[in-house]
Design a protein that fits this description.
The complex is a heterodimer of chains A (about 475) and B (about 260).
Chain A (H helix, E strand, L loop, with lengths): L2 H14 L1 H39 L4 E6 L3 H9 L13 H8 L4 E6 L2 E8 L2 E10 L13 E2 L9 E5 H7 L13 H5 L6 E11 L24 E16 L14 E4 H7 L6 H4 L12 E6 L5 H11 L1 E4 L2 H43 L1 H9 L4 H44 L12 H28 L2 H6 L2
Parallel strand pairs in A: 4-9, 6-8
Antiparallel strand pairs in A: 1-10, 1-11, 2-10, 3-4, 3-7, 5-8, 6-9, 7-8
Helix pairs in contact in A: 1-12, 2-10, 2-12, 2-13, 10-11, 10-13, 12-13
Chain B lengths: L2 H11 E14 L2 E14 L3 E5 L6 H9 L6 E6 L2 E2 L5 H10 L1 E4 L11 H11 L4 H14 L15 H13 L5 E5 L7 H18 L2 E6 L2 H7 L2 E6 L2 E7 L1 H4 L12
Helix pairs in contact in B: 4-5, 4-6, 5-6, 6-7
The chains are: A alpha+beta (about 475), B alpha/beta (about 260).
Chain lengths: ~475, ~260
């Protein structure tokens, strides 16, 4: 029999005992719904986690350093990396090249230095680091008081809470109750502090205002290894105080004062690595000790790392940690899948039952069909088609039901979270592949359930079947 | 005229040949010999009645000829096909293309309209939808039911249902029409109507007809030849002289 005919006859037969077949189909759809609900919960939680992790910058960041870095030289040679001759200087063209790699969001130089900051004429020695404007979306700054930098070049500063306390002359309470960030921030926001730093400047060039010489005119002269160190001051306005978890952001968190990246770049602050790199800066471009690369998705970190390694740099990421996280979610998904499948397994028994009943009821009909020329295969296919149709219908209804259940659970949980004054979030996701998978799986399970009834119907002896009233 | 062409001509004209045909089955401890060594020849285009009381084995013989059942021993050869040697698949094809069947209880599928019932064999034969519709309405036309093609069997009288069943049996243009008590559930007037149609198809299309009946009068009126069975054995095989004489039949059924 042709497939359209099969489908037509199967649907007609399903309509004939509408109640029983509807109940069976509802059974399947409940099974599929539980499967979809479980899996979309797993996927949603995974997406939530990777969204959070993505924000934290832990798992989507690759730190790139040059292999020429003396500290790393021996280690990189021990590995199978390229010889030092192939290794490259981590300069501006290299940074741009990295930024152009697929899956890379941005690549920015890590600027970090220790210098003196004066507040109300008291000097404080501290570690300063630069933040790209993209750090604004980092949830480490979620609880920050004040605002983020108004622009990437603004003479503004964000303080780590502990440093803010230091400026106010408060000693951190050991074991006691920590004062809220807001209390610390209040007297500081809007105030100015002065940063004293050592500027690296070409000796030939007259001193220029730091913000004006943002480009490379100075550095081109560095090729001659002629540069001088000039002591400078920069006034900075305190715009924010943040209580950063030292563990949440690998790089900058150890610093206590943060500057906008472009501003920090334009200052040409003397960095500890400058002496080492200076003789190699032949390109006339700024040379960086390290560059942080943000990858679009934690799953692509490995690919990006490999590509950067191929370019001749050393890379570092927390890929291993994210891999174990992914393993955890695989296992979670598997468990949810198994539990979700249980309901579908029960539903498949319902299909077997319904079809076996249908054989008993339609014995005579099967006998007639055989008498007028239906082959065993035709009868078998017809029962298969009925099972499959129930599977597809149940699958479609089940996906819709599972989606609805998921939305309701998500909504209810968010109402609860709001009541507990926690941030509501979407931990529920039904991707298209899950829809397809669920319907396909339901179809497959139904066909398997139809195996026995179909074989039994096909083997029916037509003479006996016709005698049956 | 030599014997050779005569022989081949004779072979051509034999539609059904059974040799020492047996169908035994067990029911508990007892062995039931439903068909027990039946040998017979039916010529192509012949109208044969199988007569006998219930349990005589006439329906079993018909089922064996129809390919619905397999012989325990012996052979049935229909149009040069040894049915015992065909696979299940081949038997289904044989039932589909060579044989048309009509039953006492009509055996239309209740959930389908007449048109759908009639075209069902064409679905198994994988005929295109449009061609199916043409053929089924033609077939229903032939039995005078075109106007009722969209009715379900339950909406029709017994005679109409049997006419539809006849249309279904003939839709694949079979060479063999097998009828199992076709008038058993009909009153004598509609029974006559059906039998007239069967005879017309037999004459007009040259179709071989084997009809099982226990009504001797019906057999005498329509069949060219009557084969009597009792206890699974062939007890009498004779040409229907009454019909040849076209004598009137009083409608009283004889015993077998």
């Amino acid at each position: 029999m042709k497939t359209p005919d099969l489908a037509e006859l199967a649907l007609r037969n399903l309509r004939e005992s509408l109640l029983r077949n509807s109940l069976t189909t509802i059974g399947i759809s409940v099974g599929v719904a539980s499967l979809v609900a479980m899996l979309s919960l797993g996927i949603g939680l995974q997406q939530l986690a990777s969204r959070r992790l993505g924000k934290s910058g832990l798992f989507d960041t690759v730190v790139v350093t040059s292999r020429r870095d003396l500290r790393n030289r021996e280690r990189s040679e021990e590995r199978s990396g390229p010889t030092p001759g192939e290794s490259r200087v981590l300069d501006e063209p290299a940074r741009q090249e990295i930024e152009r790699l697929p899956n890379v969001l941005e690549a920015y130089p890590d600027i970090r230095f220790i210098t003196e900051v004066r507040y109300e004429d008291k000097p404080h020695l501290t570690m300063i680091s630069a933040l790209p404007s993209s750090a604004k979306s980092n949830d480490a700054f979620d609880g920050m008081q004040g605002t983020f930098f108004s622009s990437d070049t603004a003479p503004e500063v964000i303080l780590q809470k502990t440093f803010a306390e230091e400026l106010l002359g408060k000693t951190p309470a050991r074991g006691g109750v920590e004062p809220p960030v807001a209390d610390v921030a209040k007297p500081l926001l809007g105030k100015e502090l002065t940063m004293r730093y050592a500027q690296r400047a070409a000796s030939l060039t007259p001193t220029t205002p730091p913000l004006a010489n943002a480009t490379n005119s100075n550095d081109s002269d560095l090729a001659g290894a002629a540069y001088s160190v000039v002591s400078r001051e920069q006034k900075l306005k305190i715009v924010g105080v943040a209580d950063l978890d030292p563990e949440s952001m690998r790089g900058p968190a150890r610093a206590k004062v943060f500057l906008p990246l472009r501003l920090a770049e334009s200052l040409h602050v003397m960095q500890p690595t400058d002496l080492r790199e200076i003789s190699q800066a032949a390109s006339g471009q700024p040379v960086y000790s390290s560059v942080s690369v943000r990858v679009k998705n934690p799953t692509q970190v490995q690919v990006v790392e490999d590509a950067i390694k191929k370019m001749g740099f050393t890379t570092f990421s927390l890929l291993d940690a994210s891999q174990s996280l992914r393993t955890f979610f695989r296992v979670l998904d598997l468990f949810l899948l198994i539990f979700g499948s249980l309901a579908l397994a029960v539903a498949s028994i319902g299909i077997v039952n319904t079809l076996v009943m249908a054989i008993l009821e339609r014995r005579r009909e099967i006998g007639i069909m055989k008498a007028i020329g239906a082959s065993d295969g035709d009868v078998k296919k017809l029962f298969f088609a009925e099972a499959g149709a129930m599977g597809i219908l149940g699958g479609i209804a089940g996906v819709a039901l599972g989606w609805a259940i998921g939305r309701i659970i998500n909504l209810a949980t968010n109402v609860y979270l709001r009541r507990e004054s926690l941030t509501p979030d979407n931990f529920w996701a039904v991707p298209w592949w899950l829809v397809g998978l669920a319907i396909g799986f339901s179809f497959l399970v139904s066909l398997v359930s139809g195996l026995y009834p179909a074989a039994r119907a096909a083997k029916l002896d037509p003479v006996q079947a016709l005698r049956y009233e | 005229m030599t014997t050779a062409p005569a022989l081949s001509a004779a072979r051509e004209t034999v539609a059904i040949r059974s040799e020492n045909l047996c169908r035994h089955y067990r029911m508990g401890e007892t062995l039931i010999r439903a068909v027990d060594g039946v040998s017979l020849d039916v010529r192509a285009g012949e109208f044969v009645a199988l007569l006998g009381s219930s349990g005589s084995g006439k329906s079993s013989v018909l089922n064996l000829i129809a390919g619905l059942d397999r012989p325990t021993s012996g052979s049935v050869i229909v149009q040069d096909r040894d049915l015992a040697k065909l696979s299940r698949e081949e038997l289904a094809k044989y039932r589909l293309h060579i044989v048309g069947m009509v039953f006492q209880s009509f055996n239309l599928i209740p959930s389908m309209t007449l048109a759908e019932n009639v075209e069902l064999p064409l679905r198994f034969a994988e005929v295109d939808r449009s061609r199916r519709q043409t053929l089924s309405s033609e077939a229903l036309d032939r039995v005078g039911l075109r106007a009722r093609m969209n009715h379900r069997p339950s909406e029709l009288s017994g005679g109409e249902q049997q006419r539809a069943a006849l249309a279904r049996a003939l839709i694949n243009r079979p060479q063999l029409l097998l009828a199992d008590e076709p008038t058993g559930n009909l009153d004598s007037r509609t029974g006559t109507e059906i039998m007239d149609m069967v005879r017309d198809f037999n004459r007009a299309l040259g179709m071989t007809v084997v009809m099982v009946t226990h009504e001797r009068a019906l057999a005498e009126r329509y069949a060219q030849r009557m084969i009597f069975l009792a206890d699974g054995k062939l007890v009498d095989d004779r040409l229907n002289d009454d019909r040849l004489n076209t004598s009137t039949i009083d409608g009283r059924g004889g015993q077998a």
